[in-house]
Amino acid sequence: MSTFISLMKLTDQGAKSIKDAPARVAAAVKGLEAMGGKILGFYMTMGEFDYISIAEAPSDEVAAAFLLSLGALGNVHTTTLKGFTLEQFASLVKKLP
Predict the structure, then answer these.
(1) For residue range 41-68, what is the model confidence (pLDDT) as tens digits?
(2) At 79, which CATH number?
């Protein structure tokens, strides 16, 4: 599975309904699991981003579909990074000319 790190910012809608956020996160966890993925970690953060999640998905397409569905709800804007483990990184470097 591939790893994805998502940086999220609340929208005005998400901030106004912040008391519902824990239930929304729980629903998102179940939604990704139904698509074959898994949330490895979720954090509320202070600073530029309001939340950070680390997730695994079976493909880029599954991750993209999940993130599109999350964005369509209107509570967060996401910026997502595809992550590579140290072992994957080392393997990529070995392939360099």
Answers:
(1) 999 999 999 999 999 999 999 999 999 9
(2) 3.30.70.920
Q: What is the pTM of this model?
A: 0.91
* Number of domains forming the structure of the chain: 1
Say how far residue 87 (Cα) sits from the centre of its chain: 22
pLDDT tens-place string over residues 61-96: 999 999 999 999 999 999 999 999 999 999 999 999
